[in-house]
């Protein structure tokens, strides 16, 4: 017998010599911060990049966190559509988890905004502006616009999450979260430093997205306005002084718009009410993310447009399935019926031609401008589409169906149909005939009416109820024919709930509702449609998303998550 | 240009290999045994990073150091070798274990394998130094409530209803193992006179598969698309939304008969000018013996996220071939 045994032992090292693995690159052309800037246009490109991020930031996930967790908006499940893995219910019922996509979108969007602004600053700071026939004042205004934008992103982050890592440069590594107070002070000091260096609005010139002095002052006023929620210390007096200063014209020339839709219309860049807006224009950067979320598949016929909708979001209902008002059941929500009957905004939205339009809602029978019936495609397939200010499975009511009468219907997040809920049309939509106007309305981020309401609330909280009522009524009256307000605010009727109603009416769908509810301590303690209070204080802040902690383990989670 | 990483380096691999080749019984029995230990430093992956300083949330980085350890064993036995009969059988066995040794910088863990919408199930893998690669980082299933809601175990081992208390990351645990403890293949080749036949079998043993197809398509709350039969049968009373839990983990163990083939080589005297003429029939991917309920337990077991059957899995097809092989 022949036996062979061969033993091999190998130890192999892939040897590492820096010289032989370093890739030598030959650059044929390159753009660096030192060579990029050739003209003023390039400087503006750098300054504006973080502003285009802000355009995106104002909508989508950040907006959703503000509105779908609060009392005015919901995405009900509509038959086979929009259950979305329970996502919409979790936000509405305040059962979100640390893995939710919108929360990650808000964290990521906030800090990416900070990063982009710091990045632009890093490039501009060493630049000699005189090379481009620009002055040091121009440079200071640019840098302080970027600083103010950083403050804005951080303030939104503080609102959603509490303390965040404070970055002042892009050098360095992961940072842990700051405390709420540290972030608050950081925002405060950026704004205080920026305010004197920003340009003042002279009056008359259109808004093109730049941050002027009054915008930074308004941000500081907002910070103080919500200070009790942010750092546990009310600062209404400080907020009042700044808001009063803006109203008095100390920081530039502004005025309330004479018409209700002036600040929202196609030419709102010229509205005297706008303090800061994000530009939007047809086929350029467009403020349009909500169209698909809000409108029905067939609403293009209503608008005489060519855009497709996904039919998701609507106002929470004002009425039970049996048509009685919810008014006795809870104080919040029911946004549509919070509008007085004579309110111009309560009319159905109609484009009137030449850039004019009326109304702010889609409700009731859906018809074309010529009066033809628009039909549904789901529960009401080939039947007339009639939007209702109610949630319930009305298509399943009747002899031989699931429900004998509307009295048996439940009204929950799971009970939507394709025609459920009033739809908001705050951003006007033209017909195809005037399509160049489409998305021509800028997104008004800060407008004077907000300063009026902020000032009113500060006054009210500090004991001047009459002053508060006057300010709100000054804004309210433009919403009624001949400026005759059927239900003005009075010292007697202006309480917590009336205040929350007024914020809801004037700023419906402007992405601020959760913040207002938290300031009034209503977010976790009040009920609204299909929502019971959790009484869990920690829900006023969102959790630090898992994805963020995955990238930076030093981030500490908020309590309660 | 953002999220640049000027310090990126090549991965560095160091490997130790101890091998033994042998042949005994007049070369009738031959074999090979290899033991290896491989260390990979500066692993390159796309990874979540802190923003700022990064502009975007992911960067390609050297993320840490990993090691693989295992053996391969092969036995080849020519059991019969007569003028008419020949029979050879080959058995190959291998075992591999991977472990993460360290992560970059100050990171103590990194989460991966984000489960897609609908819903927000979360991440199912956590890289954690000292932990084996292939473990699932998920919640542990604790049953269903009477009204069909999910119950999970919290960090203290107490069951809770997910609609009553929000689950937290602290409740997650490392569960299961996505990399087979043993991979086997066994080949038989037999010939009698002009006939030849072979059978090739493979088996993976000792691992779990996360059945994403069941997770996404077997609950009755999934609307507007086809669902699995289970949605109307054993899952018909479940009301709650799917949870990223070990409820969806299954044993992946399988035995596959990959190939059976049969051939006949014609006698030289029959085929005139041809050198060689062989007629054969082969069947491929013929049988899978497994208790796994998904489409195919043979899922990706490489990389940092082994052991998931993805929703886009495509069913394997059985292939039959009849052929004629001619040499001139």
Give your account of this protein's structure.
The complex is a heterodimer of chains A (561) and B (328). With 561 residues, chain A is mainly α. Helices cover 35% and strands 7% of the residues of chain A. Chain A is built from 19 helices and 11 strands. Chain A has helices at 18-21, 33-36, 40-57, 60-67, 87-92, 101-124, 136-161, 180-194, 213-225, 227-231, 236-247, 291-294, 299-303, 335-338, 448-461, 465-476, 496-506, 513-519, 546-551; strands spanning 4-13, 73-74, 274-278, 314-315, 350-353, 356-358, 361-362, 364-365, 386-387, 423-424, 443-447. In chain A, the strands form 5 sheets. Chain A has a two-stranded antiparallel sheet. A two-stranded antiparallel ribbon of chain A has the order 3-11. In chain A, strands 5-6 form a two-stranded antiparallel sheet. The longest helix of chain A is centred in the first third of the chain and has 26 residues, at 136-161. Mean pLDDT of chain A is 93; it is low at 11-19. Chain B has a domain at 1-97. Chain B has 1 helix and 19 strands. Chain B has one helix at 212-217; strands spanning 12-24, 29-48, 58-81, 85-103, 110-115, 122-127, 136-138, 141-144, 150-153, 159-161, 173-175, 182-192, 195-205, 208-211, 249-251, 254-265, 276-290, 308-309, 319-327. Chain B has a 9-stranded antiparallel beta sheet with strand order 1-2-3-4-12-13-16-17-19, with no helix packed on it. A 3-stranded antiparallel beta sheet of chain B has the order 8-9-10, with no helix packed on it. A 3-stranded mixed beta sheet of chain B has the order 15-14-18. The longest helix of chain B has 6 residues, at 212-217. The model of chain B has no long low-confidence stretch (mean pLDDT 91). Chains A and B meet through β1, α6 and α19 of A and β1 and β5 of B.
């Amino acid at each position: 017998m022949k036996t062979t045994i061969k033993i091999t032992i190998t130890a192999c090292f892939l040897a590492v010599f820096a010289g032989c693995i370093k890739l030598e690159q030959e650059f044929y052309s390159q753009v660096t911060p030192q060579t990029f800037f050739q003209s003023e246009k390039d400087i503006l490109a750098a300054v504006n990049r973080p502003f285009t991020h802000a355009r995106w930031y104002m909508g989508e996930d950040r907006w959703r966190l503000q509105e779908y967790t609060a009392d005015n908006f919901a995405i009900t499940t509509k038959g086979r559509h929009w259950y979305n893995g329970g996502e919409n219910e979790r936000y509405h019922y305040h059962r979100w988890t640390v893995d939710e996509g919108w929360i990650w979108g808000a964290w990521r969007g906030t800090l990416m905004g900070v990063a982009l602004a710091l990045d632009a600053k890093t490039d501009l700071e060493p630049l000699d502006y005189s090379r481009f026939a620009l002055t040091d004042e121009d440079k200071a205004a640019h840098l302080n616009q970027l600083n103010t934008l950083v403050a804005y992103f951080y303030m939104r982050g503080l609102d959603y999450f509490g303390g965040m890592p404070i970055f002042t440069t892009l050098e360095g590594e992961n940072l842990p979260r700051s405390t709420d107070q540290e972030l608050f002070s950081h925002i405060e000091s950026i704004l205080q430093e920026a305010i004197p260096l920003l340009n003042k609005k002279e009056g008359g010139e259109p808004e093109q997205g730049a941050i002027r002095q009054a915008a930074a002052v308004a941000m500081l006023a907002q910070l103080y306005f919500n200070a009790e929620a942010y750092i546990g210390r009310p600062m209404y007096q400080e907020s009042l002084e700044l808001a009063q200063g803006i109203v008095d014209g100390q920081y530039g020339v502004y005025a309330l718009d004479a018409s209700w839709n002036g600040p929202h219309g196609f030419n709102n860049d010229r509205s005297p009410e706008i303090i800061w807006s994000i530009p939007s224009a047809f086929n350029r950067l467009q403020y349009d993310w909500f169209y698909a979320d809000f409108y029905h598949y067939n609403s293009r016929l209503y608008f005489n447009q060519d855009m497709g909708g996904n039919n998701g979001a609507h106002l929470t209902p004002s009425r039970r399935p049996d048509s009685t008002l919810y008014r006795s059941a809870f104080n919040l929500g029911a946004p549509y019926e919070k509008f007085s009957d004579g309110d111009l905004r309560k009319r159905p939205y109609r484009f009137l031609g030449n850039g004019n339009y009326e109304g702010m809602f889609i409700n009731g029978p859906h018809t074309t401008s010529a009066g033809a019936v628009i039909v549904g495609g789901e529960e009401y397939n080939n039947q007339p589409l009639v939007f209702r200010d109610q949630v319930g499975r009305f298509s399943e009511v009747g002899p031989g169906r699931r429900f004998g009468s509307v009295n048996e219907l439940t009204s929950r997040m799971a009970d939507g149909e394709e025609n459920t809920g009033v739809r908001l049309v705050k951003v006007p939509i033209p017909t195809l005939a005037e399509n160049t106007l489409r998305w021509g309305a800028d997104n008004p981020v800060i407008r004077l009416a907000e300063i009026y309401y902020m000032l009113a609330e500060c006054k009210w909280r500090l004991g001047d109820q009459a002053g508060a009522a006057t300010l709100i009524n000054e804004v309210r009256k433009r919403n009624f024919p001949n400026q005759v307000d059927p239900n003005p605010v009075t010292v007697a009727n202006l309480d917590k709930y009336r205040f929350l109603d007024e914020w809801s009416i004037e700023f419906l769908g402007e992405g601020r509702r959760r913040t207002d509810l938290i300031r009034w301590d209503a977010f976790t303690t009040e009920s609204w449609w299909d929502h019971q209070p959790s009484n869990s204080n920690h829900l006023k802040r969102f959790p630090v998303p898992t994805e963020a902690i995955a990238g930076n383990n030093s981030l500490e989670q908020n309590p309660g998550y | 240009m953002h999220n640049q990483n000027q310090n990126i380096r090549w991965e560095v691999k160091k490997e130790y290999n101890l091998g033994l080749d042998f042949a005994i019984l007049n070369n009738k029995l031959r074999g090979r045994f290899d033991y290896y230990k491989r260390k990979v430093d500066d692993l390159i992956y796309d990874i979540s990073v802190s923003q700022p300083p990064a502009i975007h949330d992911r960067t390609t980085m050297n993320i840490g150091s990993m090691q693989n350890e295992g053996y391969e064993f092969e036995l080849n036995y020519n059991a019969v070798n007569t003028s008419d009969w020949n029979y050879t059988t080959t058995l190959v066995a291998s075992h591999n274990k991977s472990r993460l040794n360290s992560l970059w910088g100050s990171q103590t863990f990194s989460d991966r394998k984000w489960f897609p919408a609908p819903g927000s199930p979360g991440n199912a893998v956590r890289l954690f130094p000292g932990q084996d690669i292939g473990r699932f980082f998920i919640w542990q299933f604790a049953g269903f409530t009477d009204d069909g809601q999910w119950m999970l175990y919290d960090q203290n081992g107490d069951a809770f209803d997910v609609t009553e208390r929000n689950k937290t990351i602290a409740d997650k645990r490392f569960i299961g193992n996505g990399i087979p403890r043993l991979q086997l293949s066994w080949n038989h080749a037999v010939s009698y006179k002009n006939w030849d036949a072979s059978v090739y079998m493979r088996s993976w043993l000792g691992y779990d598969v996360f059945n994403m197809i069941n997770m996404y398509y077997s609950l009755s709350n999934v609307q507007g698309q086809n669902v699995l039969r289970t949605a109307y049968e054993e899952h018909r009373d479940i009301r709650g939304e799917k949870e990223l839990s070990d409820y969806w983990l299954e044993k992946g163990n399988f035995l596959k008969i990959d190939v059976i083939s049969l051939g006949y080589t014609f006698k030289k005297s029959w085929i005139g000018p041809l050198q060689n003429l062989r007629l054969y029939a082969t069947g491929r991917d013929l049988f899978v013996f497994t208790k796994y309920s998904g489409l195919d337990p043979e899922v990706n077991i490489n990389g940092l996220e082994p052991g998931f059957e993805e929703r886009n899995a495509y069913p394997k097809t059985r292939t039959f071939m009849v052929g004629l092989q001619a040499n001139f």
